[in-house]
Design goal:
CATH architecture of the largest domain: 3-Layer(aba) Sandwich
Radius of gyration: 22 Å
Number of domains: 2
Strand order of the largest sheet: 3-2-1-4-5-6-7
CATH topology of the largest domain: Rossmann fold
Oligomer: single chain
Number of strands: 13
Helix content: 25-40%
Length: 397
């Protein structure tokens, strides 16, 4: 267990199954991943893999890779946190500390002097990077979001709401991570610019987008009427976390401002983490479907005429690619990855406001032929193979 395969000198440390383990899978596909360290890893034969909450903590694409996880320690901490009803911030910080402590112990078992590159994710790698540097290894930080700039933005937009505030120590550790990182990978120019504004050197950063591997469904089933009416209303889909950060408050305000006689219907798919206005919750034009597994979300895209994401801030927003893969035009802000080309495959909001959202929705409603043209626009999205090469080339760019 101590060493890693000869010639595969990249190590990835990741908490959770973020993007279905996309980064370690991409590096493994490029033939460079020698060791993957994660918090919980449960192959299908494991008894805990039968529980709904833990069933996704495995990926067959990594079955031939050396994978190590401190299952017992991490599950014990989670059980204790739930029993004590620890708040999400303290629970997350405790999890990050425990994971790093156990991961460093695993790294200490590597006794050869081969050059290594350690990839780890933001907010859970300051100790990992410090250890890697003590061994002379290279370090790559995967920055998952715009960091403190995002928190400040949401607090500024919603000062009256009880939005969790990460303590100063959390951000101080993040600053250590950015200092110790030789390269910082971000998923979009939106995140890159936000980090530059926070003092992160731009020459340390490179942009690697997320890859997309498809949802169940087919673009061939998607059709538009000559005009929308009461019998065939325009169907608008939001899919993701129903939260303030995603711009749901101005979207709800836009719905409230649209006359009930206007033929538009709204579907919301995803977990709710904010208060829903009573008139929105009872509005017959609006349906909340709750969380749905990834393998069935394709049916919602198939039925949608337009996808809406008025986000205040997203490191990438992979749902944009999901929507476009399914042939659905998008209404979104400029605060995420630049997937939308205005007027070509969707519409970009001038600002995240009820009036801007209403204007975009009305434009789509009155121009179904334009929606059909945007739906048919051709796309060229990154693959696991292409981003794997991008990751293993970060020191050459």
């Amino acid at each position: 267990m101590a060493e890693v395969p000869s010639g595969k000198n990249w190590i990835c440390a990741q908490i959770g199954a973020r993007e279905h383990y996309l980064v370690p899978r991409a590096i493994a596909d490029a033939g460079e991943l020698g060791l993957f360290i994660t918090d919980i890893w449960l192959p299908p034969s494991h008894p805990l893999a039968l529980t709904k909450r833990l069933a996704g903590r495995y990926h067959p694409a990594l079955s031939s890779t050396s994978v190590w996880a401190p299952n017992a320690q991490m599950l014990a901490l989670e059980a204790q946190s739930r029993l004590q009803r620890t708040d999400v911030i303290r629970r997350t910080m405790a999890r990050n500390r425990l994971f790093q402590r156990e991961a460093v112990r695993r790294l200490e078992q590597i006794t050869d002097d081969a050059p290594r590159t350690l990839v780890a994710f933001s907010y859970a790698c300051d100790q990992l990077f410090a250890y890697a540097k003590s061994r002379g290894w290279r370090t790559v930080l995967d920055q998952i979001d715009p960091a403190q700039a995002e928190e400040r933005l949401i607090q500024r937009l919603h000062p009256a709401d009880a939005i969790p505030h990460w303590p100063a120590a959390y951000w101080e550790r993040w600053q250590v991570e950015t200092t110790l990182a030789d390269v910082i990978v971000v998923n979009s120019d939106w995140t890159r610019q936000a980090l530059v504004d926070q003092g992160v050197p731009s020459d340390k950063m490179c942009i690697i987008p997320l890859a997309y591997e498809g949802v169940t469904g087919s673009r061939a089933r998607h059709h538009y009427p000559a005009r929308f009416d009461a019998g065939r209303p325009m169907r608008v889909l939001f899919l993701g976390q129903i939260t303030q950060r995603k711009g749901l408050s101005p979207l709800f305000s836009a719905i409230q401002a649209i006359d009930h006689a206007v033929p538009i219907r709204f579907d919301f798919v995803g977990p709710t983490t904010m208060a829903i206005p009573d008139d929105i919750a009872s509005d017959p034009r609006v349906r909340f479907h709750g969380s749905k597994p990834h393998q069935v979300t394709g049916s919602f895209y198939e039925q949608a005429d337009v996808f809406i994401l008025p986000t205040y801030s997203d490191g990438f927003a992979l749902t944009q690619i999901e929507a476009r893969t399914m042939g659905v035009p998008i209404i979104t802000s400029r605060h995420c990855a630049a997937i939308v080309r205005h007027g070509v495959n969707g519409l970009l909001l001038d600002d995240v406001s009820a009036s801007a959202i209403t204007s975009a929705l009305m434009h789509c409603l009155h121009n179904p032929a334009a929606l059909a043209m945007m739906a048919a626009a051709q796309e060229d999205f990154p693959t696991v193979q292409s981003i794997g090469k991008a990751w293993t080339d970060v020191f050459d760019s």
